[in-house]
Input
Amino acid sequence: MLGQEVILEKPNTMNSVLDMSTLQHGAYFVKVTIGNVTKTIRVIKE
Output
């Protein structure tokens, strides 16, 4: 939870898969923006 950006993707589709396989185990926040709406989702990688 250091606030560092580890992956940045800007897909041009509503259906997208984010490959987090290279990241270490831990908790991450995924910020998703669609149009003018932004949501932050907490992801636990085990």
Observations:
- The chain has a mean pLDDT of 90.
- The CA atoms of residues 20 and 37 lie 23 Å apart.
- The first strand starts at residue 26 and ends at 34.
- The radius of gyration is 11 Å.
